[in-house]
Amino acid sequence: MTARTVAIFGATSAIAEQVARLLAARGARLLLVARDPERLERIAADLRLRGAGLVDVQVADLDDPAGLAPLLAVLEARLGPPDLALVAFGTLGDQATIARDPDATRRTLATNFLSPACLLTALAGRMEAAGRGTLAVVTSVAGDRGRASNYVYGAAKGGLSTFLEGLRHRLAPSGVTVLDIRPGLVDTPMTAGLRKGGPLWATPERVARDIERAIRARRSVLYTPWFWRWIMLAVRALPEPLFHRLRF
Amino acid sequence: MSGFPESTAYRAWGRVERVRHRVIRPGDPLAARAALARRGGLRVLAHGLGRSYGDSCLNPDGLLILTRGLDRLLAFDPLTGLLRCEAGISLGELLVTICGRPAPGGGIWYLPVTPGTRFVTVGGAIANDVHGKNHGIAGSFGRHVAALELLRGDGTRASCSPDQNRELFAATVGGLGLTGLILEATLRLVRVEGLLLEVEDLRLDDLEGFYRAAEDSAAWTYTVAWVDCLARGRGLGRGIFSRARHQPGGSVPPPTAPRLGVPLAPPVSPLNRLTLRAFNALLWRRLGPRGRRRRLLPAHDFLFPLDAIANWNLLYGPRGFRQYQCVVPEAGAPAAVRRLLETIAAAGEGSLLAVLKTLGAPTSPGLLSFPMAGTTLALDFPERGRDTLELLARLDRIVLEAGGRLYPAKDGRMPADVFRAGFPGWERFAGLVDPAFSSGFWQRVGPASGRPVARAA
Predict the structure, then answer these.
(1) Coil, strand or helix: which one is B102?
(2) Residues facing B453 on adjacent strands
(3) Which of B23, B25, B98 sits opposite A49 (nearest CB)?
(4) pTM score, two decimals?
(5) Interface pTM (ipTM) of the complex?
(6) What are the pLDDT digits (tens) for A6-40?
(7) 3-state secondary structure of B46
(8) Set of chain B residues whose Cβ sits within 8 Å of the Cβ of A38
(9) Cβ–Cβ contact B69 with A under 8 A
(10) Contact at 8 Å (CB) between B39 and B63?
(11) Sheet holding B292-298, edge to edge
């Protein structure tokens, strides 16, 4: 399947951009959606030169529920039904603020759970009707167990993973694939405030290669890099008394 | 300060020093500007792929702006070969994405100048005004930079070219990242016949042989020689001279580092006097009785010998190594190179890669550009503390007496007087350095050298 048609939501995210480069090199036709027009244009210019069959951009605030219907109309008009939709937007936020401020908690849940869930509902209906397509969604290993350091973000991502699980169940008869992408620690601007380095940190390029392969293989859940599956298995298995003595 | 995370992970290629940095990896020019705005008292330096050998890519206790997130292609004109890109993209990535595309009138577009590794960024290639094996024809990398966008410490942007902001352009090409952050560059690619090279290797019996071969190679685009720096007496300067020119065909190199690699630094380096002597003798005899061999090679195999083994720098063990590269002007070059080789052979200090090249007539555009018409010699020495430093100081004297200079990209130790003698334009350069920027190298050789360095907490 070459020259696929792909819509990327949150196209200025570091991971999404690297996935887009791999797809561009295979001649894919891309529609990029994000908030910041300047960054979008820069990324679009790059993807055109890297071999994309076509690159179109659409500025949109994916947190705005009223914008969803017009956005999907644009998608339909310009790209037709996509073979692949990559949903890659999210915010990590500052946990110290989120932990005290109900409004920040609401915003974190909205951006990381509510907005992608609504978008996916709309996309799923179209793909189900078409009887084909792939929904690939970036969640996080943070969703596997609530932890003091990022449990609001983690709750949103964990909720999204559950949503995807159900969506996959619903869409299984229709031939639509749902991929839940759970990256570990990735060196991106989103994690700029964290101390980095060491074997647990991965580059967005590495993560993107895993994602592109998982999409082609029509996988359901991807931990990337691979070792996070086992780390999170261990983290989930920790009994509470021990878990509470750890801070991470 | 300012919420930048700390790291000791960013090192130079020679791995002699480990220093503490604050780091930030902006994903676009606006983020880079925002990082500069909140730097507080920190001095800043761009850091790309860390292929500089010494401390010109380090900024002890300062802020490193990691440029690899600024790696986008922005525009390419297949008719003229003009390419505009962000400065954090690597030459290897340009080779994969743009080079190899057909040029009008036949042939393909290619990098005008290729240093010994393709894993350097465009910004790094400009900031070090790198040269390649085609210096006699093409000159240094900076000659092919049509324009660049510089982000200054005060947040302003300056468009620089040989016609616009000329002083700042001359200071930025070869300027070791000290004039600001290079955001974008416009490069002039060159047309070549193809991605294959016709390569001829000639055995050299002595140093005269090198100069004869160099003179005799006008019909070849690329020339370089490897010399056995352990050979003494009549064999002094023996080695292999290689020359190459483009041929049609071939394919682009793989995008990433080779699979063959050194996983971690061995506790004791396998590179010692004995192994080097054996290795050098073996290499020299490889050409067989005729002492001549012709081959057709993928261009990247010949142009990027350093990329054959990933992380080869780890071979020098936990203490790392020092690279020494000098150039001596044409007139006294044969005598000076002889003295350098004699001094090295007498010290018994082997070098895995001793590379001899002639640099040609094209002038370099930068105030601190390294290349000048003459002969350049590049060597690696395992770091052995004082012994190594004393040998290098002896070499310094020979180079300065010959009117030569050392390559800052390779250096982690040259004293301020050696730097200043080699680069007479340094004071003009110092006046154009952005006060928000600094590096380990500049603290050592710049105007502040010798004075206690004021460091931000």
Answers:
(1) strand
(2) none
(3) B98
(4) 0.92
(5) 0.89
(6) 999 999 999 999 999 999 999 999 999 999 999 99
(7) strand
(8) 28, 30
(9) yes
(10) yes
(11) B292-298, B196-204, B239-247, B222-227, B355-359, B374-382, B321-329, B405-406
